[in-house]
Amino acid sequence: MRRNSSPSRLPAPYLRSIRLDVAKPFDSKRHPFSLPCLAAEPFQLEFTKPVTILVGPNGSGKSTILEAIAALCGFGLHGGSRNYNAGSGLDEGKRSELAAHLKAAWLPKVTRGFFVRSESLFALLNQIDEFDAAGLYGVDTLTKLSHGEAYLNLFSNRLEQGGLYIFDEPEAALSPSRQIEFLRLLRARELARDSQFIIATHSPLVMAYPGATLLHLTESGLIERPYAMTEHFRLMREFYLDPDGFMEALFGDLPAEE
Q: Domain tally for the chain?
């Protein structure tokens, strides 16, 4: 029987959990299994809300986890969906190794959605243009739009369809005002109850999305904390309270100019 690719009448979240299958052998000293967030046993990520946000320093494993989830969904690991694959010319074998060791629980499994990582966004837009499919997004071409315009144009059209959407650092392509537009798009789809979002970000604006599950990737595994307790928020709060003092303290230990 052919599985229906449209979103279920059941509300999001559709992907309910992923966990590391310890029955399959792997080398815990080799990447990605050596990542602290994965090494903390037993690794399991529960999705209880339509919006889940992952935060953590560079190298903590956010992108690695998103890539694995994208592989479980059948999306391109460098960006795309089941129809468009921004990584078609890249070596994806190693990138999907984590996915091969994960077990996923769905209710139900959906195949509609998208994975976008800002670093390979242009490759994805270029492929859509090559397929002469930009008209589906209301424009003649996506690659001639600005980075932020193309990003929002892509999602404002795709999100209307519902499904599972994975965003890796969307703020890299968006100004603060565009990030606000992005969050409004998310809210509209969340209220429609037909979309699930999994986001990795460094943006305090995105982290503050109300009602989201905010998970920190730490040496001890995944820890849920409010956004006001993140290092990102703390640093930006210190800066905004006293920009001059913040900069003075930042460079205070450097030798004075002669």
A: 1
pLDDT digits (tens, 9 = 90+) for 53-92: 999 999 899 999 999 999 999 887 777 777 766 655 544 4
Listed in sequence order, the residues at least 6 apart from 226 whose beta carbon sits closer than 8 Å to its beta carbon are 214
Q: Which helix (H) or strand (E) holds 248?
A: helix 243-251
Report whether 225 contacts 214 (CB < 8 A).
Answer: yes
Amino acid identity, residue 94?
K
For residue range 169-192, list pLDDT tens digits in order: 999 888 999 999 999 999 998 999
Residue span of the structural domain in which 189 resides: 15-218
In a domain, 248, yes or no: no
Percent of the chain clearing pLDDT 90 (strictly above): 47
Residue 161's H or E segment, with its range, is none
Angle between helices 121-130 and 147-158 (to 10 degrees): 70
Q: Can you tell me whether residue 172 is helix, strand or coil?
A: helix
Mean pLDDT of 119-137: 64
Any idea what the CATH number is for the domain that residue 107 is in?
3.40.50
Contact 48, 213 (CB under 8 A): yes
Residue 224 belongs to a domain: no
DSSP, collapsed to helix, strand or coil, labels residue 233 as: helix
**Is the Cβ–Cβ distance between 222 and 66 less than 8 Å?**
no
